[in-house]
Amino acid sequence: MDNDIFKALADPSRRTLLDLLHATDGRTLNDLCTPLQMSRFGVMKHLNILEEANLITTRKVGREKLHYLNSVPIRQIYDRWVSKYAEPWAIELTSLKNELERETNMENKPRHVNRIAIKATPEQVWQAITDPAKTSKFWYNCAIRSNWEIGSSFELWNPEEKKLADGIILEISPPHKLVMSWQFPAFPDTASESPSRITWEIDSHTELVGVTLVTVVHDEFEQAINTAKILEMGLPIVLSGMKTLLETGSALSND
Question: In its keyword annotation, does this UniProt entry include DNA-binding (predicted)?
Answer without folding.
Answer: yes
